[in-house]
Amino acid sequence: MTSSKRSPAVTQRFLVVFDFDETIINESSDDAVVRALPSQRLPDWLKNSYREGHYNEHMQRVMVYMAEQGVSEDSIRSAVEKIPPAPGLLNLLEFLQSHQQDFQVVVVSDANMYFIQTWLEHAGVHHLFQKIFTNPASFDAIGQLVLLPFHSHSCSSCPDNMCKQAILLEYVAGQQKERGGAPFHRVFYIGDGANDVCPSLALGPRDTAFPRRDFPMHRLLQAQAPKVQANVVPWVSGEDIVDVLKKVVEER
After folding, report:
1. Nearest 5°: phi and psi at 248?
2. How many CB atoms lie within 10 A of CB 140?
3. Spatial CA neighbour of 23 closest among 163, 201, 216, 221
4. Based on the number of CB atoms within 10 Å of its own CB, is 3 exposed (0-12), middle (13-18) or buried (19 or more)?
């Protein structure tokens, strides 16, 4: 599922791609929502039902369980809205807001549309994002949040429901076509997790991957350094990313 905000502007020279969990927000939205349960934790049988590469299916089961336990939409929304942003993240978004003529901003996340839109709207930053690529999610008639996979793909490195590299490459190509053949000058990819490595490997030498320092994306990019063409700039705070983007804007 994608959410689109406005038509592309050819003047936007740069594309900024954000992950969501532990990148825009400072923890996993899935973990935060579990705290809406009366026990504030999942039973062991449900935690242990997770299979590698099938996380979306696992969260579907979690949402069924939460509905069975009487957790309401309001409780889930409240849990999402309470998640703090990552350090310096709001400053980074403020910088991008003030340079919208230069930067097109999107989210590519294996979370879900309900969590992401709820948090961005509550934080007052939803309007900044041209598009949100994530798993569809909506409440059904009995109050259960129903999750669906984003797509299917043939990448052996990624979870069954989402290859972020496939999404990124398709989006960049589509934007170039819509922009009359004008490509983005540079792509900046900001993430933290193992599933942010695959799209980072598609970046070119003028692009930059920003892995959150000491998170899986950072460690894995270090381990796969010979395959990485992009500049790699680890971040602790969104301010670290602002420092890089300021220099890029000034390079006119």
Report:
1. -65, -45
2. 9
3. 216
4. middle
- pTM reported for the whole predicted model: 0.93
- Of 54-58, 79-83, 140-144, 240-244, which gets the smallest average pLDDT? 54-58
Gap between the Cα atoms of 67 and 65, Å rounded:
5
CB-CB contact of 169 with 202 (8 Å): yes
- Residues 27-52 as b/e (b if ≥16 CB within 10 A, e otherwise) read ebbbebbbebbeeeebeeeeeeeeee
Which range has the worst mean pLDDT, 22-36, 50-64, 131-145?
Answer: 50-64
Phi, psi of 31 (to 5 degrees): -65, -40
End-to-end CA distance of the chain: 35
Residue 106: C-alpha distances to residues 34, 73, 121 (Å): 27, 26, 15
Q: Is 78 exposed, middle or buried (0-12, 13-18, 19+ CB in 10 A)?
A: middle
Question: Residue 8 — very low, low, confident or very high, per pLDDT cuts 50/70/90?
Answer: very low
- Radius of gyration over every alpha carbon of the chain, rounded to an integer in angstroms: 18
Smallest CA-to-CA distance from 167 within 208, 131, 136 is with 131
Q: How confident is the model at residue 23 (pLDDT cuts 50, 70, 90)?
A: very high
Give residue for tokens 């000034």.
250
> What residues act catalytically?
19, 21
84-120 tens-digit pLDDT: 999 999 999 999 999 999 999 999 999 999 999 999 9
φ, ψ of residue 84 to 5 degrees: the values are -75, 150
- Give me the amino acid identity at 237: S
Tokens 């899986």: give the residue: 216
